[in-house]
Write a structure and sequence with these properties.
Strand content of chain A: over 45%
Number of strands of chain B: 11
Number of helices of chain B: 0
Order of helices and strands of chain B: EEEEEEEEEEE
Helix content of chain A: under 10%
Oligomer: heterodimer
Strand content of chain B: over 45%
Helix content of chain B: under 10%
Radius of gyration of chain B: 14 Å
Distance between the termini of chain B: 34 Å
Radius of gyration of chain A: 14 Å
Largest interface: A-B, 24 and 21 residues
Chain lengths: 114, 117
């Protein structure tokens, strides 16, 4: 079993839809949770960052962490064609030893159709 | 505005050739990383460095080596390229562990797509 599981999709939605992207994980030591967005032929860029449990909102994007269920989500409201990209989750533990290493999901490919 | 620069976007090499992939960052970051990205396998860490002249193996270091002689430059070396090293190679950097938040924020380059024939 992988430490981080992410459905690769592809996910195709109409413009304006609410998109839900998810990752599950197995390591209860994970404390830092990130979502990166990667456009075609580009490197990933940080989209959202959350420490421990709870929600974080930034414009049309909301990141949720449920540590009791070992589940994180990224919601995109009013999705736009410019949101079409691959979304990767990443997470890690505290600063000690191997917990410093980021563990990545495989990424979910999203297409938002006009 | 480019902060992490990878020297080559596309390379085509022959089996057995020595390949150098260069990465330069201008953000004075302590940490630098080399990943490869393959369909169905995601991002896999090859090597990383937390300081000048320091390197640590990632998850798939076999067939690769690295060099970090200056803080801003991290080079990936394929001593004898093989076809199974055909991939997208991504360099990234992040601030040091003194900032636990910043250390998680990786800035990636645009990638180098290597084809080994």
């Amino acid at each position: 079993q992988k430490e981080v599981e992410q459905d690769p999709g592809p996910l195709s939605v109409p413009e304006g839809a609410i998109v839900s992207l998810n990752c599950t994980y197995s390591n209860s030591a994970f404390q830092y949770f990130m979502w990166y967005r990667q456009y075609s032929r580009k490197g990933p860029e940080l989209l959202m960052y959350t420490y421990s449990s709870g929600n974080k909102e930034d414009g049309r994007f909301t990141a949720q962490v449920d540590k009791s269920s070992k589940y994180i989500s990224l919601f995109i409201r009013d999705s736009q064609p410019s949101d079409s990209a691959t979304y990767l989750c990443a997470m890690r533990g505290d600063n000690a030893g191997n917990n410093r290493k980021l563990i990545w999901g495989l990424g979910t490919s999203l297409a938002v159709n006009p | 505005d480019v902060k992490v620069t990878q020297s080559s976007r596309y390379l085509v090499k022959r089996t057995g050739e020595k390949v150098f992939l260069e990465c330069v960052q201008d953000m004075d970051h302590e940490n630098m990383f080399w990943y490869r990205q393959d369909p169905g396998l995601g991002l896999r860490l090859i090597y990383f460095s937390y300081d000048v002249k320091m390197k640590e193996k990632g998850d798939i270091p076999e067939g690769y080596s690295v060099s970090r002689e200056k803080k801003e430059r991290f080079s990936l070396i394929l001593e004898s390229a093989s076809t199974n090293q055909t991939s997208m190679y991504l360099c990234a950097s992040s601030p040091g562990q003194g900032s636990s938040v910043g250390a998680n924020v990786l800035t990636f380059g645009a990638g180098s797509r290597l084809t080994v024939l």
